[in-house]
Amino acid sequence: MEIIHQHFEIISSTQTYARDHISCKPHQFFIISADQQTRGIGQRSKEWRSPMGNIYVSYVFALPVEQSMLFLRYPSVMALCVIDALEFYEIHGRIKWINDVLINQKKIAGILCENHGSSLDHPHYFKAVVGIGLNVNTEPLDTNQPVTSMMTEIHTYYDVKDVLTTLTNKIMMQIPMLQKNGPAYLYDRIHTYWDFLNQMVTVTLTTGETITGIFKGVRPDGACIIDDHGQHHYVTNGHLKG
Q1: Cα separation of 176 and 181, whole Å?
Q2: Which residue, of 80, 90, 107, 231, is most buried by count of CB atoms within 10 Å of its CB?
């Protein structure tokens, strides 16, 4: 696989750059990273605050078009890669549906997965862009939820480049299998890391409607399962709160 890494001291958004400037062939793997972002993007186009000292990266790679229907599972697949990277530093994370990694119910990382379709040159593959923000040495201010960082958890200052290398290696280990077989082989491992599993939660839908019940995990298509007194609700997009 051809690996191409572009790093910026400061950029508007690694995700926007990857969307607009990277054309990916099936054998290529792009890494777009930055020390700072001026307009970082989170889930549902929310601003991702991006102080110095953390990882801001977008990965670009190709996936077979038949996996398009499974792409809703990719935030949890990439969250598992983040967890594996944190485990290397003896930090133990959990996955909050749909796209966050938590430490003791404090957010340490967020993930944004986008499907940008196929091209005329490679009609059997689609361009996947995976953005990851990981709090390494600092924590964003003015957030509406508890946050933490690797340094806060372990009281150690980390070399951001080293952590990025660890994270990238964990993701690249999975790419060949993902391209060949899809994400199903990781579902059992992911299930063991769900935060709030079998606990009472409230999911706020994009319409503003809320559903409250017991979080029972996630279906193969990526929809979370909420048990409301025996009635199951299947939610494909929303904000879960424990």
Answers
A1: 9
A2: 80
- With residues binned 3-state (H G I as helix, E B as strand, rest as coil), the percentages for the chain, rounded to 5, are 30, 35, 35
Helices (H), the chain: 14-21, 74-88, 150-154, 160-181, 187-191
Structure tokens belonging to residue 205: 């839908």
- Averages of pLDDT over runs of 10 residues in the chain (242 residues) are 95 94 92 91 61 95 92 95 98 96 96 89 92 94 85 96 98 93 93 97 94 96 95 94 90
User: Residue type for 88, please?
Assistant: F
Architecture of domain 2-191: 2-Layer Sandwich (3.30)
pTM over the 0.85 mark = yes
For residue 86, how far is the Cα from the chain centroid?
14
Pairwise CA distance, residues 127 & 129, whole Å: 7
Phi-psi region of 237 (alpha: psi -120 to 50; beta: other; left: phi over 0): beta
Query: What pLDDT score was predicted for residue 43?
Result: 55
Note the pLDDT of residue 121.
Answer: 80
The burial of 63, by beta-carbon neighbours within 10 Å (0-12 exposed, 13-18 middle, 19 or more buried), is given as buried
Domain ranges for the chain, please list them.
2-191, 200-241
- Token pair for 60: 């670009």
Q: What is the pLDDT of residue 40?
A: 72
Q: What is residue 45's predicted lDDT score, i.e. its pLDDT?
A: 54
159 burial class (0-12, 13-18, 19+ CB within 10 angstroms)?
Answer: exposed
